[in-house]
């Protein structure tokens, strides 16, 4: 009597068991998803995101939305099934856990670092906007308040919000042209715009919030175009002045750069 049949059956059972275990074993990965898209021209938790004193402030229409991404916590159980599902989803991304949560740093430490980056970004955004407007920072005071958001990625939209509240498009209209504009990008005190990552998911957040235009650092055009939601126009920018020029052109019929 041949033992090949029973042995093959046992091997198949063991292989199936190993495969089942592999599907359920936690992996050292995190899943990232689109986050919030807060309006820099509006309010957050009942308070204005941008408060300006020492200079007249204009009423604005339209929106300037900062975009964020969220991620599973470091102790979240991510299995092979979760990773494969996220890999094929257009509104999720799988990344090594250490890319978000460097080993040796607690969540509290990372949150503190993120808050510090946000504060530095806000200071740079105010400096860039007031410099563009040729206003004295000792006379005009700007306070930025966007709770529960960290990191430097809102810098560009903060600067644009300040400019819109003080000057608009410079011709009596809104910088937004009354549209729902979203975007991302760091900014320096001199107005240079830099990349921050996560553009693919941030465009998803922008579309979900109703935006029709997305301002993206020029160096992130390629990633922003991946899985770009229909009806969302990408506009590459390299500086605050560049972004303001593009927004003006959008509602005056001028030439607007494209990714």
From TrEMBL:
Gene3D superfamilies: 3.30.230.10. GO terms for biological process: proteolysis. Transmembrane segments: none annotated. Pfam families: Lon_C. InterPro entries: Lon_proteolytic (IPR008269), Ribosomal_Su5_D2-typ_SF (IPR020568), Ribsml_uS5_D2-typ_fold_subgr (IPR014721). Residues 142-229 form the Lon proteolytic domain. One of its GO terms (molecular function) is serine-type endopeptidase activity. This is Lon proteolytic domain-containing protein. It comes from Mangrovactinospora gilvigrisea. The lineage of its organism: Bacteria, Bacillati, Actinomycetota, Actinomycetes, Kitasatosporales.
């Amino acid at each position: 009597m041949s033992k090949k049949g029973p042995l093959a059956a046992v091997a198949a059972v063991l292989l199936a068991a190993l495969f089942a275990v592999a599907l359920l074993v936690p992996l050292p990965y995190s899943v990232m998803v689109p986050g919030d898209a807060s309006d820099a021209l509006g309010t957050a938790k009942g308070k204005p995101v941008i408060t300006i004193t020492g200079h007249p402030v204009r009423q604005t229409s339209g929106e300037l939305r900062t975009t964020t991404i969220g991620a599973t916590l470091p102790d979240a159980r991510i299995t092979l099934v979760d990773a494969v599902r996220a890999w094929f989803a257009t509104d999720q991304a799988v990344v090594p856990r250490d890319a978000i949560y460097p080993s040796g740093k607690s969540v509290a430490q990372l949150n503190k670092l993120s808050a510090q980056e946000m504060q530095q970004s806000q200071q740079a955004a105010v400096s860039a906007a007031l410099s563009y407007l040729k206003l004295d920072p000792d006379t005009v005071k700007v306070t930025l308040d966007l709770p529960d958001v960290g990191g430097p990625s809102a810098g560009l939209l903060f600067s644009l919000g300040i400019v819109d509240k003080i000057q608009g498009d410079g011709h009596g209209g809104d910088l937004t042209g009354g549209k729902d504009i979203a975007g991302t990008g760091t900014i320096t005190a001199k107005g240079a715009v830099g990349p921050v990552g996560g553009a693919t998911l941030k465009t998803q957040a922008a579309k979900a919030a109703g935006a029709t235009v997305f301002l993206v650092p020029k160096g992130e055009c390629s990633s922003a175009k991946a899985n770009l939601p229909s009806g969302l126009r990408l506009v590459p920018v390299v500086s605050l002045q560049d972004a303001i020029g593009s927004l003006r052109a959008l509602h005056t019929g001028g030439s607007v750069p494209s990714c």
